[in-house]
């Protein structure tokens, strides 16, 4: 083959590939969404801040592989600007669908509008955005974080039922501005505000990490003369805080009762050792459901606007029995 013919062949192949990718995922585009052609999905993950996140990433990657989806994965390292860059790059690459788990709730309208203009559907997973314009994304799959906060509050109210002495609570919040931090705080607050004995004496972000959870708990222990309860917005912060509590010569789960959220294996191990009193489950294994949704959205099928994950609550007495069955 002459050099000229080879160049022409490559150019034709590139043009075909670009057409196959589609200039966007207009609904009903069977060629790239229906199963004949492989679907390309851009996925922007929050980061690798917690055990929950590691399990979620694995679930999404495994499910994409199983579904035969070409997943372009990008880790934002807990920075919104990185997610915006990743989404713009996915738009440039003309992926079929963009899925992402927003680090924070606000500030997405511009980039989501760019995806919409490029006719690339967006699926939100795990965390929500606060955009007023609901046409900017197709659906949102994830937990109800307000409900999780309420479940944490319900446990506390029950635990101290009939008691009148003040209950001093310290709160380790998740990443500032993130949906789980906002919602877990408000859900919990709504439940305990009806009883004056509950007092949140200190509340600060631990950014969903063990290191920060430990650091902030150390500060709480220094500044607060009496702490009865720790409410941690995730397991990693609770596990970091446990180290701080033990180093301060106190017994976690007894001197300071601990409420946590997620339900990762390490937290169940700590709960089985009586160091955490209750864990509100937040399920990270969203991969298979996400891939199904992505395929439907690309095909232009109707999907529910909001799909909630089903989750439970586990107490100390259930931990040992539940531990072998934990999948993350
Ligand atoms: O968005 C889900 C939250 O993010 C999890 O509870 C936390 O562990 C993670 O970092």
From TrEMBL:
Limits of the Periplasmic binding protein domain: 41-301
Keywords (A to Z) from UniProt: Signal, Sugar transport, Transport
Coiled-coil intervals, chain numbering: none
Compartments where found: Cell envelope
PANTHER family linked: D-ALLOSE-BINDING PERIPLASMIC PROTEIN-RELATED, GALACTOFURANOSE-BINDING PROTEIN YTFQ
InterPro entries: Peripla_BP_I (IPR028082), SBP_2_dom (IPR025997)
Organism this protein belongs to: Kitasatospora gansuensis
SUPFAM superfamilies: Periplasmic binding protein-like I
Top-level division of the source organism's lineage: Bacteria
Signal sequence extent: 1-22
GO cellular component, one term: cell envelope
UniProt family annotation: Belongs to the bacterial solute-binding protein 2 family.
Protein name, UniProt field: Simple sugar transport system substrate-binding protein
A Pfam short name: Peripla_BP_4
GO molecular function, one term: carbohydrate binding
Predominant cellular place of this UniProt entry's protein: other
């Amino acid at each position: 083959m002459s050099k000229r013919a080879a160049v022409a062949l490559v150019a034709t192949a590139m043009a075909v590939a670009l057409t196959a990718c589609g200039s966007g995922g207009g609904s009903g585009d069977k060629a790239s969404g229906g199963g004949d052609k492989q679907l390309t999905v851009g996925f922007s993950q929050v980061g690798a801040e917690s055990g929950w996140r590691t399990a979620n990433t694995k679930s999404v990657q495994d499910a994409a592989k199983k579904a035969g989806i070409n997943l372009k994965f990008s880790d934002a390292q807990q920075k919104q600007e990185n997610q915006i860059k990743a989404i713009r790059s996915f738009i440039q690459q003309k992926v079929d669908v963009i899925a992402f788990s927003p680090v924070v709730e606000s500030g997405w309208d511009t980039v989501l509008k760019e995806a919409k203009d490029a006719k690339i559907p967006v699926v939100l997973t795990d965390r929500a955005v606060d955009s007023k314009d609901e046409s900017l994304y197709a659906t949102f799959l994830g937990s109800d974080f307000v409900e999780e906060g309420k479940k944490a509050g319900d446990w506390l109210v029950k635990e101290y039922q009939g008691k009148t002495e003040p209950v001093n609570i310290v709160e380790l919040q998740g990443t500032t501005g993130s949906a789980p931090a906002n919602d877990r705080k408000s859900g919990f607050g709504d439940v305990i505000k009806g009883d004056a004995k509950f007092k949140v004496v200190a509340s600060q972000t631990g950014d969903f990490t063990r290191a920060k959870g430990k650091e902030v708990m150390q500060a709480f222990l220094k500044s607060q003369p009496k702490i009865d309860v720790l409410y941690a917005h995730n397991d990693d912060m609770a596990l970091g805080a446990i180290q701080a509590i033990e180093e301060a010569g106190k017994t976690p789960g007894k001197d300071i009762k601990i409420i946590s959220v997620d339900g990762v294996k390490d937290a169940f191990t700590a709960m089985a050792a009586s160091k955490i009193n209750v864990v509100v489950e937040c399920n990270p294994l969203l991969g298979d459901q996400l891939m199904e949704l992505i395929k439907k959205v690309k095909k232009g099928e109707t999907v529910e606007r909001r799909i909630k994950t089903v989750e439970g609550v586990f107490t100390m007495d259930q931990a040992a029995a539940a531990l072998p069955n934990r999948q993350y």
